[in-house]
Amino acid sequence: VQSEALRRTLEGVHVAISAGGTREPLDPVRFIGNRSSGKQGYALARVAAQRGARVTLVAGNTADLTTPAGVDLVRVGSAVELREAMHKVAADADVVVMAAAVADFRPLSLTGHKIKKTSADPDPIALTKNPDILVELVSARREGQVIVGFAAETGDETTSVLDYGRAKLHRKGCDLLVVNAVGDGKAFEQEDNAGWLLTREGAETPIPHGPKTQVASVVWDAVTARLTESQ
Ligand code: CTP
Ligand code: CA
């Protein structure tokens, strides 16, 4: 978009963005994964690069997406690999955005060979918790660094999407949280996205339904405002 190219508001800013889903290996050929396409993370990377940022994109499994022009791509598989890559990149970044869909659990043990079927019933898969990368990045935060999280939520009988989002923002300790309502064909694998942008100070901005680049623009506008304030 031409208007984006004219807003070089992230010139001289290094941003680290995670995108896509992690794959948690069971054996050399199998994994537990999720349906994240990586599109929102790639849209964030594209818009940031258009605005003049230096962009490092740490990507797990994604749909067949083209790396945006001028973006450094780091490929990862599991959550543990994503964690290591993000810590490395974040140590040098002014802004960190966790748009990746990180598996909450991974198989407790990784079998070095392909698991064979036998006549016996299979063993259940024992799982263990993955580290919360966003929480770790918040505790390792550099002076003035802006940290953004994403949350895909469905509401239920007792709690709305927005209430879950508010609670998550406080739990994670990030500066901004993008909350998307999911379910009913919303968000996952879609071109469009909508939701709210929450700030740690309690501001809540609805993000209109639109392309993921539009969501990205809203996020970068808010990030730029915070970077300017802290200068
Ligand atoms: N996230 C992370 N590390 C994890 C899990 C999540 O860094 N192990 C990040 C995601 O990239 C996202 C934010 O945390 O930016 C929220 O992810 P979400 O899955 O919504 O939060 P959880 O704390 O895992 O809570 P839930 O039980 O709702 O899945
Ligand atoms: Ca989760």
From TrEMBL:
CTP binds at residues 104, 114, 131-134, 150, 168, 172. The keyword Flavoprotein applies. Pathway: Cofactor biosynthesis; coenzyme A biosynthesis; CoA from (R)-pantothenate: step 2/5; Cofactor biosynthesis; coenzyme A biosynthesis; CoA from (R)-pantothenate: step 3/5. Residues 10-224 form the DNA/pantothenate metabolism flavoprotein C-terminal domain. Binds 1 FMN per subunit. Its cofactor is Mg(2+); FMN. This is Coenzyme A biosynthesis bifunctional protein CoaBC. It comes from Lentzea miocenica. The lineage of its organism: Bacteria, Bacillati, Actinomycetota, Actinomycetes, Pseudonocardiales. The gene is coaBC. The chain holds residues 187 to 417 of 417 of the full protein.
